[in-house]
Amino acid sequence: MANPETGGGTHPGYPLTREQLLEMYRFMVLARRLDERMMTLQRQGLAAFVIAGAGQEAAQVGAAMALRPGIDHVAPYYRDLAVNLVFGMTAREAMLNALGKRDDPNSHGRQMPAHWGNRSRRIVTQSSVVATQLLHAAGIALGARLRGEELVVFASCGEGSTSRGDFHEALNFASIHRLPVIFFVENNGYAISERTEKEMAVEHVADRARGYGMHGAVVDGMDAVAVYQTVKAAADQTRRGGGPHLIEAKCYRLWPHSSDDDDTRYRPRAELEEWSKKDPILVMRGRLLEDGAATEAQLAELETSVQEEVREAAQWALQQPDPAPEDALGFVFKEAD
Amino acid sequence: MAEMTVLEAVRTTLAEAMERDDRVLILGEDVEAGGVFRATDGLAGRFPGRVIDTPLAESSIIGVSIGLAHYGMRPVAEIQFADFIHAGFDQLCSEASRWCYRTCGDAWLPMVVRAPWGGGVHGGQHHSQSIEAFYGHIPGIKVVVPSFPADYRSLLRAAIEDPNPVLFLEHKRTYRLIRQEVDGAPAETRIGRSRIARRGEDVTIIAWGLMLHEALAAAEQLAAEGVECTVVDLLSVQPLDRETICEAAKATGKVLIVHEDTLTGGFGAEIAATIAEEAFEYLDAPIRRLCGPDIPSMPYHPAMEHFFMPDRERIAAAARELAAY
Ligand SMILES: Cc1ncc(C[n+]2csc(CCOP(=O)(O)OP(=O)(O)O)c2C)c(N)n1
């Protein structure tokens, strides 16, 4: 099967070329290594707070690679480091963000780490208040519709966040206007300590799609390729006026909620062990080898180079200037041009 | 020169803005049919696709406006009654107000939220509220409170052209009550200035919305008795024109602040504190506030509603006392 995006042939059994598969794997490994390094920095007292996406890399990279950076917009949530990487954020910038440095392109030290936003990359600025971004996504999509720009807006959140009114208001609004939005729920089973059963009385978030008159799908969020396929199909359809989609990626949070959280209070160790066997990075690695997309040596080289990139990025970021205290005063209002 | 009501001023200015800039669009409940106050009457027909009925969901009206503004449109959202804006408080206060700040100017929001506010219309607890203190507290949102049609014209135009979120408060009692001769084009202005609406050397009265008109009527009455008032038309709650307020306070040394909102934590407290900090040496009497009583809401029955709201008689009485202090 020829891949319309690259013109080249896809790897047997995959909707992606061999190069794309390796790129996908690389983004996943990069996100994980960054998370690990940030956590080390936090333990060393150099970073105040970390909120990681470990376990959700397949969902994030699979989804983001199905979009078109530079054209499509993303309104991510705090775990979406990997989405940001696919949309152009560098390892160095991610480290600037983790350390709250002056030149962090997301918020220049004004927000806690993992509050993303970068206008030129079409990454919508995000706050700590969960689910608000889903409405911003609907607004961007409406703007694009009115301007005749053909694009997709990707908005993500955790399953816990789907209880908020803004989630429901966003789905309703987007569906009424058949806006090109993909609502992407990364269902990792927990909202801090609360299991899904305490957050909702239906089994799947995606079941709710019908109630809003929109497309819904559940996908294995531990499988990057499956996520890619699902999001790609949705993106192609919604871009052409097919209306919004609600996609639920079933995944698992392998780490505690944040660097401040003790998950032994609420999470059975046996459950964690079970899911750790499905670690999306290990699974993807195994498949690439098994299906002949890469050799051990190639993947080892890729992993070493990522490791080195992350080490260098952290070293570099630590040397970068902090904001001046009085930098806190600027940009309350935008000056008129 | 044509005479215009407040409502006509709003409608005309919206139409002009849409005519001038095709990025301007209107969204809100019932706006396609003209809105419950008919502020958007006729606009849906004139500007197809740019006047958009929304579901009855205030967080979405503001949240979607944020997305539109971020994208580069110029949304003017209508909240049907200011009393219902609180469901969108989170979107205004946690998101819109900080968009520019939290990105250090990388992103910004040229958006307006219009909301009819205020009492005196037998609206009871949920159709009479003053909301300026809640939102005036938040740096990053501009809050505008005009009183005369000409100011509605110039300030609404300025709000739509402003690159920041602006909460534009329209006193619903004045919609059809207040008329003014208005020239063709709105005057150039910028948000954040107050105006001395009347000059006198005995007492300074500071007010906005319907109360500004009551204050002017009271000043008229007092002038006949030989008490001359300076009346400040606040126009903007955020940013606050500290200079004009303090100059007016210094000029008479006696200050009366009048608002419909309840006393405790009402915006008058901020104005009083500003004067106390910056013009204390000039004061000849304690600053006085005439406000709604500290009860949860404006009651429905006309007698109780009247009891709740300051009016020209009570303003005149308070100013008289101050003058004699
Ligand atoms: C409106 C709001 N309430 C509470 C919080 C505190 N909080 C932060 S993350 C979180 C859990 C969110 O869970 P979920 O949406 O499932 O995402 P996950 O963290 O599991 O990826 C909570 C309660 C918040 N940020 N926003």
Structural account:
Chain A: This is 2-oxoisovalerate dehydrogenase subunit alpha. Chain A: Keywords: Oxidoreductase, Thiamine pyrophosphate. The complex is a heterodimer of chains A (337) and B (325). With 337 residues, chain A is of the alpha/beta class. In chain A, 43% of the residues lie in helices and 9% in strands. Chain A contains 12 helices and 7 strands. In chain A, helix 1 runs antiparallel to helix 11, helix 1 (18-43) crosses helix 12 and helix 5 (132-147) runs parallel beside helix 6. Chain A is globular and about 50 Å long. Chain B is α/β, with parallel strands linked by helices. Chain B is built from 12 helices and 14 strands. In chain B, the strands form 3 sheets. Chain B has a 7-stranded mixed sheet with strand order 3-2-4-5-7-6-12, sandwiched between helices. A 5-stranded mixed sheet of chain B has the order 9-11-10-13-14, sandwiched between helices. The N and C termini of chain B lie far apart (44 Å). The model of chain B has no long low-confidence stretch (mean pLDDT 97). The A-B interface holds A 105-108, 110-111, 115, 117-120, 124-125, 127, 129, 132, 134-144, 146-147, 165-166, 169-170, 172-173, 176, 330-337 and B 25, 49-50, 52, 54-55, 57, 59-60, 62-73, 75, 87, 90-91, 94-95, 98-108, 139-140, 142, 161-164. Bound molecules: thiamine diphosphate (TPP). The site of thiamine diphosphate (TPP) has 15 residues of chain A, from strand 2 and strand 4.
